[in-house]
Amino acid sequence: MIVVLKDNPDQKQLDNLVSWLKSMGLDIHFSQGQSATIMGLVGDTAAVDMDLINSLDIVETVKRVQEPYKNVNRKFHPEDTVVEIAGGIKIGGGNFQVIAGPCSVESEDQICLVAREVKTAGARLLRGGAFKPRTSPYAFQGMRAEGIDLLMEAKEKTGLPIVTEVMDISQLPLFENVDVIQVGARNMQNFELLKEVGHLNKPILLKRGLANTLQELLMSAEYIMAGGNEKVILCERGIRTFETATRNTLDLAAIPLLKTMTHLPIVVDPSHATGIASLVKPMAMAATAAGADGLMIEVHNNPSAALCDGAQSLTPEAFADVMEAVNLIRPLAYKG
Amino acid sequence: MIVVLKDNPDQKQLDNLVSWLKSMGLDIHFSQGQSATIMGLVGDTAAVDMDLINSLDIVETVKRVQEPYKNVNRKFHPEDTVVEIAGGIKIGGGNFQVIAGPCSVESEDQICLVAREVKTAGARLLRGGAFKPRTSPYAFQGMRAEGIDLLMEAKEKTGLPIVTEVMDISQLPLFENVDVIQVGARNMQNFELLKEVGHLNKPILLKRGLANTLQELLMSAEYIMAGGNEKVILCERGIRTFETATRNTLDLAAIPLLKTMTHLPIVVDPSHATGIASLVKPMAMAATAAGADGLMIEVHNNPSAALCDGAQSLTPEAFADVMEAVNLIRPLAYKG
Amino acid sequence: MIVVLKDNPDQKQLDNLVSWLKSMGLDIHFSQGQSATIMGLVGDTAAVDMDLINSLDIVETVKRVQEPYKNVNRKFHPEDTVVEIAGGIKIGGGNFQVIAGPCSVESEDQICLVAREVKTAGARLLRGGAFKPRTSPYAFQGMRAEGIDLLMEAKEKTGLPIVTEVMDISQLPLFENVDVIQVGARNMQNFELLKEVGHLNKPILLKRGLANTLQELLMSAEYIMAGGNEKVILCERGIRTFETATRNTLDLAAIPLLKTMTHLPIVVDPSHATGIASLVKPMAMAATAAGADGLMIEVHNNPSAALCDGAQSLTPEAFADVMEAVNLIRPLAYKG
Amino acid sequence: MIVVLKDNPDQKQLDNLVSWLKSMGLDIHFSQGQSATIMGLVGDTAAVDMDLINSLDIVETVKRVQEPYKNVNRKFHPEDTVVEIAGGIKIGGGNFQVIAGPCSVESEDQICLVAREVKTAGARLLRGGAFKPRTSPYAFQGMRAEGIDLLMEAKEKTGLPIVTEVMDISQLPLFENVDVIQVGARNMQNFELLKEVGHLNKPILLKRGLANTLQELLMSAEYIMAGGNEKVILCERGIRTFETATRNTLDLAAIPLLKTMTHLPIVVDPSHATGIASLVKPMAMAATAAGADGLMIEVHNNPSAALCDGAQSLTPEAFADVMEAVNLIRPLAYKG
């Protein structure tokens, strides 16, 4: 961390600052320039509050040189993390997996039918929403506990491990047999929830928030890893921009960039990112080409009758077509 | 709600759509144009999923005419809501209140000292963070339960009602004696939390999310009101944009615009919005002029030693100066 | 276009509106609902000002059903446009081309060397900036007229057609022998310039503005086509968002979405979009997979000495590596 | 400027970098830390390309300490600039002015009528669009040269100096008698136009671009001042964000923040920023309270018949009401 002081800083304030920094175990290197004095802080600066230093009268500006994240940082963990899920399924480090299924679990028939169809087409994990975050209190909120039960039945019948979203800490006991717990975009900075899933020994799929930077995504993953859970899968699902032609703007450059920042696997959700079923295939292909470790795709037996997000769901036939295209691109994908 | 059909829609699909809409209790009015058939849906369309209809093959586009919110809608509740807080303090409907205090509760001395000083300067509610949402797991997370206790002591000593943030449902029992519960920007779409505080009989200060539209803010308020709690105070605190000179971009047009959409009171937080102490005064003045029902301002006894967000905190002296400027503008403020 | 009227509209104002709409050659279909009267406007609504109608006291809301663009609209021109450039080179309709070269023309040696190298690697058009838009007046502004001359020499020596940017109408006479004129992102809504290049018989590469929607991009292309020039190539080059890890956010969903909206070819510029050389390869691969008609890539003989945008330039060797990867993906690319 | 080098930088590359920096007249101060070497560059770094240095293999990161702008920088010009317009009218340094008039000049009667009415209400400058930037080529493009003539007639009849927008260098001869030349938001980075108006001896009203930062706005003002024209007036008119309830998001924190960065006067345009007539008054009041040096407001004799931007225009009566409210707030406005 570099602190640039203003001209002629008040000596007493400067002494206070230096003492405080030393009390945090940092070494300080002074460099006297013509118009500014620069302090280089050496040591573990992850816990140092830049805003606080910046607020001091004697400080011109503060710049961070090192990343504020550690456990997720590729610098300290150069090899790709491979997250092991149930049934010997792995993701990351060259293991590419497709997660597919309906937006919401609606009935036993529906979820089992979709599960069989996405398995046939090549998906290795089943997704389905039991607890649904909906903008409107009047919209369908998911089948909740019953939805989890139906997912378990689908798992038993097809062998596909389950990925489903938790919305609150109080729901976690219901997730005991869930294979991968999803933390949704709106909860990416629900820090209490992050801490709690950080104490589990279970893969966590962490979705990027609509207004969150890649560094913030990594800081949220750091929350989980700081608790001891190293099984974190990141998910790019689009950010909110001024463009309204798609629901969100899918940031595919995030894939190769995150790969340089972190060792964690990265999957892409083209369904939620675009909100338009016809864009799922090209974006799935593009994400694969760019080096994603997996995809998360909404598939519904009958898109028109889906209780939510129908506009972004594929039929099983369309999903099989996406899988075929993705499988062709896979061997040619960017590898860093 | 208006549904524009494509040319020559498949009759069977159209019949299905019409049946489904009627099953939701809606009346349908057809209007045959030259190149498009338009269906006008009359009735309670708040629960109708636009995305779903939009996904149908036979549909060109769907447009909502009515707002998807009811309880918060000024159309159905033309008079301003006045939220009554403890001690006879009211906000809304011409009652303007300033909430002030430190970012974080740090010690009994600190919170009591600041409480006395902001009270002297004219604040009528005390804010202070006990549970702190921090981007980094290594940053100070607040004094938590102990922080709530200290706020209660400050309340006892000064008589100021307390405003403090809840981060998770499991913390709510600790908030029994808190006067106003704050739902923070990162939790604006934590729908489980919204439902829970919707069952309380206590004012809720709901902050706008960094990437949320005004309509989404109102939908989150609708979650609270749908649970029976009518004591909702909205808070504009800046949105995330490409501009990095300020922490967020304070959207002051939200004040008069929200006033036309809803009857709920609206306060503005210039401290978090800008992240720069010297901008708090002009933005507090501007928010007051634009018709805000109140302000929420960070004040610290010693800004440089604050454990978080120091850069946006004022000294008590600077806060008194802001209050003086705001009080002069108050009688001239926009009234709609 | 659909106009939803307020309850009990003033009859005189309504008559005025109806007369005005009829004077624009539109037919009006009324549909009386329970709580609203809907007017459907049939005819050429491209010139109708939605904002103006929206401002009327009697109007609740206005919604456009038809696109405001005509010449660029795929509905009226279902086949892909193939733009023919000099030397029999075509782009669009299955013809994929890579445009490569340095950010700025710096010397005869430099531009000729790079031209030979990119040609060897497979580029079919040479780019190079003669007039450079720079944020700072103190930064290098390009070699200007002399730069155009050097591009002509490179063209003569290598046979590669030239793509270079015009910044002002007054520069156009210098572009007589330029093969493709680029209108840069900052000039996407320089409407006077668009009109002027609309009168040329020469391909125009139109870059998307940093804050412009896809519809606005198409409206700017419509300006060019309305003048008679049908040789328009669109270019996605990233939009400005809150994310600062990349210079801009590359919006690859724009490729398949634009393909449904328009018949014009679409190229992608991963160099400017990301501003990071190491991201050019994966984003070039992703753009190709998503169905782009071409790429525009910065290549420099010596990235470290480039006078501008060095951070986003590849060496010729790195460019050859990108070409190889892109060529492998090409046959598998999304075709709509 | 601070350059942080990577560990064990290649000595030859480092020597090259040092030579190049010295050739630009900079002094270099080395500071050796534990894990990084820091170079402090002292001298005129405005022309140094950060991106270029950042692209070097041996460089970890580059941070600018000094602002890249000089002439507009308040550090080098502590007093407020007062721009003198025709007729003894001044703006800046405590001189507050309101610019008002229709979006487009439509006829002699219209512009003269509006001019008289806004003068009566207290406006001291007349605005009116002769050249109109319109998204659609089929929308009204303004009366152009004839519109300028009509503005001159209105000036003659009322004595109000004229503010009107130039869209291209070739139009400048027509602006000889225009008092203040407006460079619109879409042209904020039309650098050739900026250079040209930088050679005039006439006030320039420079509007912030929809996707431009405050620093970029100042860099564009620097273009004008670098040409010798010191009469620059900045205009905040909203930026493009994800929020669609207003046309743009008015960034009022820009006013006090720009005042710390520059000595130039700042006016605010609430009409274009919000696009909603009813929001003009509260935003005009808020901008005034925040310390703006002036306002730019659209006024039309008959808003419903305006040929463009009608939704954001006030009637003369409504404008008089805004003026009254603004004049009351003026003496209480923030002064820094």
Describe this structure in words.
With 336 residues, chain A is an alpha/beta fold. Chain A has 2 domains: 2-63, Phospho-2-dehydro-3-deoxyheptonate aldolase, domain 1 (Alpha-Beta Plaits); 74-332, TIM Barrel, CATH 3.20.20.70. Helix content of chain A is 31%, strand content 18%. Chain A contains 10 helices and 14 strands. In chain A, helix 3 crosses helix 4 (145-158) and helix 3 packs parallel to helix 10. Chain A starts with a strand and ends in a 7-residue tail after the last helix. Chains in contact: A-B, A-C, A-D, B-C, B-D, C-D. At the A-B interface, helix 2, helix 5 and helix 6 of A face helix 2, helix 5 and helix 6 of B.
Keywords:
homotetramer; 336 residues; alpha/beta; Alpha-Beta Plaits; TIM Barrel; 8-stranded parallel barrel; 4-stranded antiparallel beta sheet; 10 helices; EC 2.5.1.54 (chains A, B, C, D)
